[in-house]
Amino acid sequence: MAETDHPIRAAAIAVGGTIGVMTLLFTGIVLPTMTASRDNKIESLSTEIGTLKENLADIQNKLTAGQRIITDQQSSANEDRNTSKKKEENLKTQIESLEDQLFIVQQANIFVKGDPYPLGFDQIKLGDSKDKIMELFPSGKVSDSGHTITFENKSAPIFRRIRYNHYDQKTPTWTIDSIEFDFDRIGRILDHSPKIPKEWLKNALLKALGEPFVIGLENQCSLWRIDKDSLVYYLEGEDTFQVSGFVTSPGGCSPTDQQVKTMKSKKG
Q1: Which residues are within 8 A (CB) of 126 and not within 5 positions of it... i.e. 6 or more apart?
Q2: What is the pLDDT of residues 196-232, one digit of tens each?
């Protein structure tokens, strides 16, 4: 039997031939095709990555632009708020200035020469009845404690509280025998109203009524004789003054015997 005829050798030769053919096919056809496919995929992925980077950059640019717009709008809004706040503060300052000017004018003109009744409160006087008080003032601002009817108005420019008193038990009807005018210093502090200078009330009374008699044990009370039926009392340092008949007088305003003699001598 020839070697080439041996079945094992023949099989080996056939396998070797097949391997050679497969090797040629793989290296010559399959491998180049796989390499090209791989390169194509890499190129495609590179293109996609490039596109994604461009899209990401575009999104980033848009985000930056949006943030810039928001920042600009916030800045503009802040500027608008600051401008509005400044305008509001300026208007508030102007209003306060006008209120101060008005208050000064009201202080200067609250009294008429020779008349103890402040302007705006000169319709009710000594001797008037309770009914007249109730008719003139709104019921919600008036309180009645029996001997005293109090009118209170916190928005009044100068005198916020007026007390109409009746102490004379000899008269058959309720009539006014003293009136207290109070500018309410403490209340003004609490609600931040314009302040009234410490000596304003005394100086205003001096301007309207002239020089007073000085009475009281400590000479702390000023007294003006208005006419035969009425007097005006002002106690040093108080927020009030009183227009009164001869029924009662404020504490500290009772004249000594010597002071009574002095008043009589000046009258004569």
Answers
A1: 176, 177, 178, 179, 229, 230, 243, 244, 245
A2: 888 999 999 999 999 999 999 999 999 999 998 899 9
Distance, CA of 106 to CA of 187 (rounded, Å)? 18
- The number of helices, as runs of H, and strands, as runs of E, in the chain is 6, 8
pTM over 0.70: no
**CA torsion sign, 102 to 107 to 113 to 115?**
positive
Cβ-in-10-Å burial (0-12, 13-18, 19+) of 233 comes to: buried
Residue 9, pLDDT > 60, answer no
| Pair of tokens at residue 117 | 């009744």
Question: Taking the CB of residue 244, how many other CB atoms lie within 10 A of it?
Answer: 26
Please give the structure tokens belonging to residue 102. 């008005």
β-partners of residue 213 are 223
What are the tens digits of pLDDT across the range 150-198?
999 888 889 999 999 998 888 889 999 999 999 999 988 898 888 888 8
Distances in Å between the alpha carbon of 179 and those of 139, 163, 236, 261? 19, 6, 18, 26
Q: Which residue has the higher pLDDT, 65 or 235?
A: 235
| Nearest of 157, 165, 15 to residue 99 by alpha carbon | 157
- Kindly write down the DSSP assignment for every residue of 219-248, as one continuous string: S-EEEEEEETTEEEEEETT-SEEEEE-SS-
How far, CA to CA in Å, does 244 sit from each of 82, 154, 223, 248?
56, 24, 11, 7
